[in-house]
Structures are given as structure tokens and as C-alpha cells.
Amino acid sequence: MSHATSDKARVAEIISPFARLAQLLEGLQPSRPVIDLAVGGPRHPLPDFLMEKIAEAQSGFGQYPAITGSDEYRAAIAGWLERRYPPVQGRIDANAHILALCGTREGLFSAVFPAVERRGDIARPAALIPNPFYQTYAAGAMTAGAEPVFLPADASTGFLPELEAIDEGLLARTAVLFLCSPSNPQGAVADRAMLKRAVELARKHDFMLFADECYSEIYTAEPPPGVLEAACEADGGLTNIVAFHSLSKRSNLPGLRAGFCAGDADFLAALAKFRNVIGPQLPLPIQHGAAAVWRDEAHVVANRALYSEKFDIADEIFGAKFGYSRPAGGFFLWLDMGSHGGGERVVKTLWKDCGVKLLPGSYLARTNADGSNPGADYVRVAMVAPLDETKAALTRIVERLG
Ligand SMILES: Cc1ncc(COP(=O)(O)O)c(C=O)c1O
């Protein structure tokens, strides 16, 4: 496999996909009322008990929170992990294996620094990133002094990176491997065997495996397996792995900024030390509210049912058009517009003629050395709007593109 490396990569090259989208659509007037399915910001109801819980703990706004998170918050997360991933039962010490985060984004970024530092024996270690990918992975890698190395994750690899195709020399100089399952943007889910293989590789080559599992609760049939359970099934330990989760997608709370990471105790201690000087603590009343949200599953079941109804509609409207198939997880559609002129062109057309705002797939991917971009043919559709709006948008897409 040829890896796209980017020695000249600079942080300034990482531009938000949404800033690029604004540039692409500048000056173009939509001819119909706008339906925005570009940003992956959930728009389903918030858990109705949240505000009461936050208010209960409001005096906590008068205190600095500990960087690690409160005992209550970490205990609620340990409980959720044990219910969601039974093989981890009895293996999670809430004090050692869990760290509160202000959403997964800052955690994914911050965690690259200690991951690079622990491989101080390598001059410029590699950060392995599936391509397409969530942009924060590359921003973290570049800022922390790692070389981002992009692993193909396109139709030919089942939209997940092929672990067996990574050469040994590269693995030997790797500080971190990012895996996203269910993946953004394609909704592909890594099975247990793949997760176990990733754990094995991380241990063999002593790099950190960062599993971004923030879409884990949005799925169609089977709950996606998690890396913590894969690790516990493999040999019981959590060394070399960290899973990242948040309430943003599970509970429609992207504005609460409540997340966590869980895994390797020594690594989390180093990450806590690093985050303690950069300071992103989660306010105590927010932790109290978020703990209640982690403890509740009823709203998550209802939330998943809302997505399922919308995917039923997509099944009906798209059939096999645009290479559509219902994703195993997450809330995005990844539609192949290669025969309609590619992602950017289709996004402009649908905006002008239909008022439907989507994201060109290339904005979520890195261009390879040969000039190809694995997202170029694609558009990403975030199924986050209410059902009627979503149905109207999908209908407009088919009517316009046929
Ligand atoms: C793949 C992926 N990881 C992480 C995040 C960050 O989510 P949050 O910081 O809200 O937990 C997002 C947000 O869209 C995402 O798509």
C-alpha cells in the first residue's frame, strides 16, 4: 500500500471543512427554502431532565473543577461502560481508567502530545490517520510534531483502513493510530476482529491506539463493538489503548461539551498532567447533569429510533442510487456523485437549485501524492434535521439529480 505522507504539512493547512464550504457557496443564492444537512450537529430533543440536574449542582460554578473529572461523573461513566460493553465488567477502575473531557474533540487533539512524547526515541514519529478523516486528528498530529500518514479508507478497503497493509517499518515508527468506528463520514463499523488486531499491533509496536467512538450509539442493527471490550476479550488489559466518547451524538448535547476518554492508566495519567496546564476542565454542575445523562438509556433508545425512521426514508428514496447503502452506524450518508460531476459540483448545484446544503467529501479527506482525493466523488449528508425536513431534502436531491 502506498501511504500518503505529508512532510510539508502545516497546521495552517488544516482549514475547517465548513469554512471551505462557505467559500464554495459564496455569492450563490438558493432558489428554495434552505435545508442544512452539512453540519453534523444533532437536532433531536435534549434529555428533558438535564436542566434540573444542572440546577441542582449550581453552587459548583463557584469552584474550579479537577481536571480528571468528579468522582460522580467518572462513576456514572464506568457504569455506562460496563452496561454497554459487558466484557469490561470488573476491569474499569473509575479513578485510573477514565478521564473527563470537554467533548472528544479537545481530547483527541490533546492526547497526541503525550502519545508523541512517550515515543521520544523516534525523531519524528508517525500518526496514522484513515483518509477521509475527522480533521482534528491531523491538527493534533501536526501540532504535536508527528508526521501525519494517511491510510486509504475508501470503497476499495470497505471504508476502513487495512491494518494488514501497513508496512512494518512504518508501524515501528508510529506513535499513534487513529480509528474511527462508526466512521465519519462513511458510517463503516470495525468488527471485533479488526479492533483486536489493532490492539495487538499497538502493543507489539508500542504505539497508542486512539479509538474515536463518538458515534457508537447511533446504529441500525447491532451495537458497534468497542475497543475497550475488544482489548478485555483479547487479554484483559487496557494498555496502549484509549477510547473516546461524548454525549454530543448519543444524547443530542453537542453544546454541553461533556465527554470522556477511557483506557491505559499510565497514559491517562500523562494526559491529565498535560491537560492540567492547558486547562479545559468540565464545570461541576455540567458534570452532575452529564452523569445523569450517562445513567439514562431511555432517551438514547428514542434517539436511535428517530434516526432509524429517517434511514428508512433514505432507503425508500435512494434505493441503490448514488451508491447508497444504509450505513451500519453514525448519522451520515456518503453518496457517490462521480457520475454527476463530483462532490463540489453537486453541492453547488443542490444549493442553488434546491436550497439543500451538503458537504463535499473532498473537504474531509487529504489529497494523495498522485492528485487523487478519496472524497472527491462524494457528498456527505448529515441526517440531523427533523424527519419532514430530511425527507424533503432527500426528495429534492433525487428530483434534481435523477
Ligand atoms: C469523528 C468525530 N470525532 C469527534 C467529534 C467531536 O465531537 P465532540 O467534541 O462534540 O465530542 C466529531 C464531531 O463531529 C466527529 O465527527
Tell me what the structure shows:
- The protein is of the alpha/beta class and 402 residues long.
- It contains 15 helices and 13 strands.
- The strands form three sheets. The protein has an eight-stranded mixed β-sheet, with helices on both faces.
- α13 runs parallel beside α15.
- The longest helix has 21 residues.
- The protein starts with a strand and ends with a helix.
- About 1% of the residues have low confidence.
- The structure holds pyridoxal-5'-phosphate.
Describe the SSE topology.
Elements: E1 4-5, H1 17-25, E2 35-36, H2 50-56, H3 71-84, H4 94-97, E3 98-101, H5 103-117, E4 126-131, H6 135-143, E5 147-152, H7 168-172, E6 174-180, H8 192-205, E7 208-212, H9 227-234, E8 241-246, H10 247-250, E9 259-263, H11 265-278, H12 284-295, H13 298-318, E10 332-336, H14 343-354, E11 356-357, E12 359-360, E13 378-382, H15 387-401
Parallel strand pairs: 2-11, 4-5, 4-6, 6-7, 7-8
Antiparallel strand pairs: 1-5, 3-9, 8-9, 10-13, 12-13
Helix pairs in contact: 2-12, 3-12, 5-6, 5-11, 8-9, 13-15
The protein binds pyridoxal-5'-phosphate.
Distance between the termini: 36 Å
> So how many helices?
15
- Low-pLDDT stretches: 4-8
Q: Share of helix among residues?
A: 40-55%
Largest sheet: 8 strands, mixed
CATH topology of the largest domain: Aspartate Aminotransferase, domain 2
SS-based class: alpha/beta
What string, H for helix and E for strand, traces the elements in order?
Answer: EHEHHHEHEHEHEHEHEHEHHHEHEEEH
User: What is the beta-strand fraction?
Assistant: 5-15%
Largest beta sheet: what is the strand line-up? Answer: 1-5-4-6-7-8-9-3
Radius of gyration: 21 Å
Architecture of the largest domain, according to CATH?
Answer: 3-Layer(aba) Sandwich
User: Going by CATH, what is the homologous superfamily of the largest domain?
Assistant: Type I PLP-dependent aspartate aminotransferase-like (Major domain)
